[in-house]
Amino acid sequence: MSENRVVQGRMVTADSLAARIEGEPVMEADTIEDADRACPDCGGDVLTVGYMPSVTAFVTGWKCQDCDWSETDRD
Hints:
The structure is a single chain. This protein has one helix and seven strands. By secondary structure, the protein is mostly beta strands.
């Protein structure tokens, strides 16, 4: 079970964080982890989560805890 984190003032689970990154609900998500990098937009802390947007894909996503910036390894 993943732990909850605060992202832009709201508590998120791994599934809801992955949905914020993807823009729609995902099938499954791994646990949220701290990324070893700062946000390129605001310098805030970045979280990472691996998730499955479909049966045939696994994506790693990154999301800033303080602003709207996010990125995936598909980009």
